Amino acid sequence: MKKRLKPKKEKLYLILSVLIISIGFILTMFYRPYVYKNKINDFGLADTIGSLVSVIGFCFFIWSFKAYSNKEKNRQIILVTIIYAFVWEFLGYLNIYGTFDIKDVIAAIISGLLTFFLKEFIDCKNNI
């Protein structure tokens, strides 16, 4: 019995998810302490790395397991962006988890927009 191979697009989503999450992790582990130690003004990038990779990494990871319609992917981007940018950050505002930072809200929204544009680019390239 042959094993079903993942479609090319799903493999690409998994690779991108792992790559983006890994880059975020490496930047958090090395770049952030370096910026803090040397008092470099990077316009808040070091503070928002997790928020910048959150929506992209999560959505691409989910899409690597199942083929979703474009409409469903767009709904998922919106839902994940709302959860991360507003619900998660609101927990920080209430001192339940972490701290509230408006820069993280903005970074999560940017992450949602980047997720949408990357998805569109990948879908466009794979439909040609």
Describe how the helices and strands are arranged.
Blueprint: H1 8-37, H2 45-63, H3 70-93, H4 102-126
Helix pairs in contact: 1-2, 2-3, 2-4, 3-4
Short description:
The chain has helices at 8-37, 45-63, 70-93, 102-126. It has four helices and no strands. It has 128 residues and is mainly α.
Structural class of the helices, strands and pairings? mainly alpha
The number of helical elements comes to 4
The helical percent reads over 70%
Distance between the termini: 32 Å
Q: Poorly predicted ranges (pLDDT <50, ≥5 residues)?
A: none
The count of β-strands is: 0
Largest sheet: none
Percentage beta strand: under 5%
Helix/strand order, N-terminal first: HHHH
Outline type: globular
Rg measurement, Å: 16 Å
Mean pLDDT: 89
How does this structure look, described?
This protein has helices at 8-37, 45-63, 70-93, 102-126. The protein is an all-alpha fold. Helix 2 runs parallel beside helix 4 and helix 3 runs antiparallel to helix 4. The model has no long low-confidence stretch (mean pLDDT 89).
